[in-house]
Amino acid sequence: MNPMYHLVEKVNGRRSKHWWIRLGTKDSDTSLTVASNLAARLHELGEDVDIKHYWDTGHGANEDAGDFVTWMGRVTGCTK
Hints:
With 80 residues, this protein is an alpha+beta fold. 31% of the residues lie in helices and 18% in strands. The protein is built from two helices and two strands, in the order βαβα. The protein has a two-stranded parallel ribbon with strand order 1-2. The longest helix is centred in the middle third of the chain and has 13 residues, at 32-44. The protein starts with 17 loop residues before the first strand and ends with a helix.
């Protein structure tokens, strides 16, 4: 399950242009470097990347749901 294989082409009409990546620093399922490398590569490709690590939380943490809704409104153009 290495996403980097899919991030080779600079131009890819099927890839999302906006990425919201969140990970807990105590996540036992995904390495912090996996998310960080993914974000770095996407940024290199010119994609809009919003990445944050939740301090002292595990897998599936959701500490900024309101920010996610605001972000969704911004990237879809559906803001009030």
